[in-house]
Amino acid sequence: MQFTLDFCAQLVETVPCYELGFVPHKDVLELVRDPQPARIVVG
């Protein structure tokens, strides 16, 4: 069990995770296909 917990902790610290909130528009496809941090707005 400890191995699994340690693995999950390391996973969430290593793999980037994003929340995508948007209005339905085809331009979001470009962002999803090529997520560049400079284009991602956090707020």
Structure report:
The chain has 43 residues and is mainly alpha-helical. It has a domain at 18-43. Helix content is 44%, strand content 0%. The N and C termini lie far apart (36 Å). The model has no long low-confidence stretch (mean pLDDT 78).
Topology, element by element:
Blueprint: H1 2-14, H2 28-33
Provide a compact summary of the structure:
The protein is mainly alpha-helical and 43 residues long.
Largest sheet: none
Share of residues in helices: 40-55%
What share of the residues does DSSP label as strand, in percent? under 5%
Which descriptor suits the 3D outline?
elongated
Unreliable runs: none
Average predicted local confidence, pLDDT: 78
First-last Cα distance:
36 Å
Structural class: mainly alpha
Total of DSSP H or I helical runs spanning 4+ residues: 2
Q: Could you state the order of secondary-structure elements as H and E?
A: HH
Cα gyration radius (Å): 15 Å
Total beta-strand segments: 0
Keywords:
2 helices; mainly alpha; about 0% strand; single chain
